[in-house]
Amino acid sequence: MRFDGTNESEVGDWWRTHWGAWSTPAPGSFNGASMSEGESHRIAAGLSEVAMDHVADVLDREGATEILFRSGATRTIAPGSWIVNCTGYLFRDRPYEPYASRSGRVISIQPRSATFPLSSWMGFLTTHLLFADKIRDARLYELDLVDLRQKSKAALWPAMMSLGQHNMSLVIDNVPTKALLDLGFDLDRWFPLPRRMVQTARFMIGHRRKREHHRRTLDTLRERFEVRCGPLPGHTS
C-alpha cells in the first residue's frame, strides 16, 4: 500500500530496513526471496570475503580455474572449489502472448503477460478461472515483467506485489473458496491457524477498497514506463 507507482526507491529502502535480511554489504539489487534472519546470519558468519560484482563466466586457463567478472576483473579460485549459480529469475526475451486467448479456452504462463509474481501462482489461479469460464471476464491485469525489468529494476518488485494483490482480489470474487484452500504453496501456511484467520479476515474486509489503490498504481506504472499493463484488449478496468 506504500507504493504508488512513482516511489520505488523509497519503498525499497523501507522494505529492506523493516523486513529485509541480507548477507552482503549493499543489497541494492534485491528482487524478492525468502530467507530467515537465522539463515542470513549463518551465511554471513561463513563468508571470508564478498566481491560485489557479477560473474560473467568461469574459465579454465593453463590448468587454473578463473572467474571472469562483468567489470573485467578476474580471480583465480582454489582447486576443488564449488561454484553455485543463484541467478534467480530469468526473464527471457520472448514474443508477447496474452495470458488468455480471445476465446478464453487457452492460457499462457509467461512473464510477458504476467498476472502474478510467480509462475506457480499464475498456473494455479488462472487455470481455476479457465475451467470456471471466467478467465476473460475476471479482468485480471497483465504486466510485461520483461519490459519493466529492462526499464526499472527498482520498480519491478513493488510492481509485482501490486499486481498480485490486485489480481488476487479479483480471483477471490470469481473462484470458490475451496480453490484457495487448496493453494498448497501459500506462504501463509508457515504461520499458526489463528494468525492466518485474522489476516484472512482483514484481507476479505478491505481487499476491494485496496484493489482500487493497486489499480491506480499499476496504471501509473503503465504511463510512466510505457509498458503493457492493464486488462486484456476488449475489457476495461
From TrEMBL:
<protein>
    <submittedName>
        <fullName>Potassium transporter</fullName>
    </submittedName>
</protein>
